[in-house]
Automatic annotation (TrEMBL):
Domain Putative zinc-finger: 55-84
Gene Ontology MF: a single term: isomerase activity
Gene3D superfamilies per the UniProt record, alphabetical: Anti-sigma factor, zinc-finger domain, dinb family like domain
Keywords: Isomerase, Transcription, Transcription regulation
Record's protein name: Maleylpyruvate isomerase N-terminal domain-containing protein
Compositionally biased residues, Basic and acidic residues: 10-20
Every Mycothiol-dependent maleylpyruvate isomerase metal-binding domain range: 135-281
Coiled coil: none
InterPro entries (alphabetical): Anti_sigma_zinc_sf (IPR041916), DinB/YfiT-like (IPR034660), MDMPI_metal-binding (IPR024344), Znf_put (IPR027383)
Region (Disordered): 1-20
Length: 412
């Protein structure tokens, strides 16, 4: 096949140089030749038609045109808006082909889109504020799980917590973590009269006992099939509390040795969902951000409110120093100032001598300062108490007791 030129005799030279062959002057292309020795705009004096110039846009975007072709195309682009628009699109596409540029999406894109959607359009039936963290954290974890392949569902995950004054751990898989969340979320389902994943008529069990029972009931290693039941259960919980009315937040949810009102139980479930979401993300080497600041504040507040009763329980077990005698009837006793910094932070005064007392800044004997996420890692049992606090001052015994109590809130 011959290629029409302007009589320069450089056809073979151009082909050997790896350039795109010049367009032929076919009838259907309507190429017009300039008069002999003329001053045409195209190569060798050839005036190239719109169709020919349009066909060169791809080569131009790849910088594969000759100097003459490039000049002709670029002159045409100043006159033809449609071709100019197409040329810009082709140049952008060529940029994606650069070997040093990843075609993968930003790993945080989904989280940002999800957060934006949750914040822009309020639900017709609003979710109670105390259920919103659970709603958001289950949605975030589900977004992480959605595109997992079979291998990722079987990725090993190490669950960590603080028990018997030392760090404990248990190995499972991504799918095993979701079965664990399903089993413990079932405590809330049962309290609301909904289906319990362990079945009806199950005697009250602690979260750890429920998990072990649910794991043992699996006839084969769990797979991606666990995602849909867990997500359906979460949707049902949020929908039920949204339609139930104001009093539903006070329903008691038993946790074995203790109970929480439903409003606190769903905050606790949001906390665990976030923590285990981080465990899963770490197992598959994927970034996972903390909850939004308002939600993180609620989770920190729940842990701070549980500390006086937890401290009293540890004192009864001989794991904390005895309470000091109250100065007068009705006195709140000593307090520890817990200063949580950063995202979701604030100030809490932890009553040290009575679980029923409210901490007071007027009776502060110690101060502990921590970052918000670091405090949550302590409560999750991921950080030993001796390594947790960034700033400490005052009664050393009170500080050690409160930090150990915070770590003992964790469990499998």
């Amino acid at each position: 096949m011959s290629w029409e030129t302007g009589g320069t005799g450089r056809e073979n030279e151009d082909l050997d140089a790896g350039r795109i062959p010049r367009p032929r002057a076919a009838v259907e292309e309507h190429a017009l030749r300039a008069p002999a020795g003329g001053d045409g705009d195209g190569p060798g004096g050839t005036v190239l038609s719109h169709q020919v110039l349009k066909s060169l846009l791809g080569a131009w975007a790849l910088s594969a045109c000759s100097a003459e072709e490039t000049a002709a195309v670029e002159e045409h682009l100043t006159e033809c808006a449609r071709c100019a628009e197409e040329a810009l699109r082709l140049r952008d596409a060529v940029g994606l082909l650069h070997s040093g540029r990843s075609l993968d999406l930003d790993p945080m894109l989904r989280s940002r889109v999800l957060e934006g959607c949750l914040g822009r359009r309020p639900a017709r039936i609003p979710v109670p504020s105390w259920a919103a963290p659970y709603d958001a954290e289950t949605a975030r974890l589900d977004a992480l799980l959605r595109d997992f392949g079979a291998a990722e569902w079987h990725a090993p995950v190490r669950l960590r917590w603080y028990e018997d004054e030392r760090s404990s751990q248990r190995r499972t898989t991504v799918a095993g973590v979701i079965r664990h969340l399903t089993a413990v979320d079932g405590l809330v389902s049962a309290a609301l009269g909904l289906d319990d994943p362990l079945g009806s008529g199950v005697k009250p069990l602690s979260p750890t006992e429920r998990t072990e029972t649910y794991w043992a009931a699996a006839y084969q290693p769990p797979t991606r099939a666990v995602r849909e039941p867990w997500r359906d259960q979460g949707h049902t919980l949020v929908r039920t509390v949204s339609f139930a009315g104001r009093g539903v937040g006070e329903i008691s949810v038993p946790y074995g040795g203790f109970a929480l009102p439903l409003r606190d139980a769903l905050l606790e479930r949001a906390f665990e969902c976030w923590v285990h979401g981080g465990d899963i993300a770490k197992a598959v080497d994927y970034p996972y951000e903390p909850p939004s600041a308002p939600h993180l504040h609620r989770l920190i507040d729940l842990a701070a409110r549980l500390l006086p009763a937890t401290l009293a329980g540890r004192r009864r077990a001989g794991l904390a120093a005895p309470a000091r005698e109250l100065v007068a009837a009705g006195s709140p006793g000593r307090s520890l100032h817990l200063e949580v910094e950063g995202k979701g932070g604030g100030d809490w005064y932890i009553a040290l001598d009575s679980p029923a007392a409210v901490g007071s800044p007027d009776h502060t004997v110690a101060r502990v300062a921590l970052d918000g996420v670091e405090f949550c890692r302590l409560v999750a049992g991921h950080v030993p108490p001796v390594e947790a606090a960034a700033g400490q001052e005052g009664d050393r015994e009170a500080i050690d007791d409160v930090l150990s109590a915070a770590a003992s809130l964790s469990r499998l």
